[in-house]
Amino acid sequence: MKKNNIHNLSSKLFAKIFNAKEDNLPLLAKQAIKKANFKYQIVEGKEYNEAILKIIKTLDSKNLKIAGPHRLADWENGWKENLAEFRRSRYNLSQLIPKFVKKGEYIRFQSDFIKPENDSFENDFVTVMRYYLFTKYYKKANTLYEFGAGTGLNLVAASEIFPKMKLIGLDWAESTADIINVLREKLNINISAKRFNLFKPDEEYHLDKDSGVLTIGTLEQLGKNFEPFINYLLKNKPMICINVETLYEIYDQENLLDYLAMKYSEQRNYLRGFLSYLKKLEAKKKIKIIDIRRTFGSFYHDGYTYLVWKPL
Ligand SMILES: C[S@@+](CC[C@H](N)C(=O)[O-])C[C@H]1O[C@@H](n2cnc3c(N)ncnc32)[C@H](O)[C@@H]1O
Prior knowledge:
Oligomer: single chain
Number of strands: 11
Number of domains: 1
Radius of gyration: 19 Å
Bound molecules: S-adenosylmethionine
């Protein structure tokens, strides 16, 4: 990597990624950009080739974990570990950052691989994106439901923007509810939990009027089995839905990094067909798609593309 190849992800560039005006970025997002180190280099030459080779070897090994109903115990155990570390650290929120947020790996950004100067680039980018999306789209919502809430950090971010909003973290893992109960007690925020399986949505559980829905890296786990959840949302008619997910259909087969991400999604049985399905629903006037933006991705795929839509 050349020395003169240092770039910075500035608030101007963030605004461009979100298709927003720089001045209109929420204050919390601006502060998060200022606080973080978003300097990076573009990965080229030998390092780039080595990264591509690593991906191909990983795909060839066929050792990747496949998403699906059999993975529940893995999620339970993962979140249990986070909870134990959260308690041990006397409730330091950084212990709730999921372990799949890898430090020190290359990041996919604007059709390149980049090497961030700081290890927490992925987490810092997500922090900025959450402030931006939540402020823009949830301001009229009374209740926010996060499906696949994991360690609850996305809802904690929502509580900073909207201290009075009712926040509900849903997950099939019981350990999510354990973490959320601790968060309510220790942070004194309006948050609660419910067990919910996206493969078999509980039809008796109704969303509040004027609610927002969020998923981040959760629908990815459903493979092609997302219809029960979409039907559930169509019946419950939330005001607005944001999905920050890997979207198979936005990848460009003619682009090497994209092509490898598609193969990765296929092998892991990650979300496929979701965007096409929503587009069909839009054509039938059942939903309206408000925005789709590619932001960045981790080493193997672009898990942070966001899609904003609402049932009609
Ligand atoms: C990649 S994690 C993302 C967690 C959180 N949204 C975040 O941004 O850190 C995926 C989450 O989806 C949950 N999940 C996976 N399959 C699910 C299902 N069928 N029903 C409910 N939750 C599920 C997992 O337990 C896990 O908490």
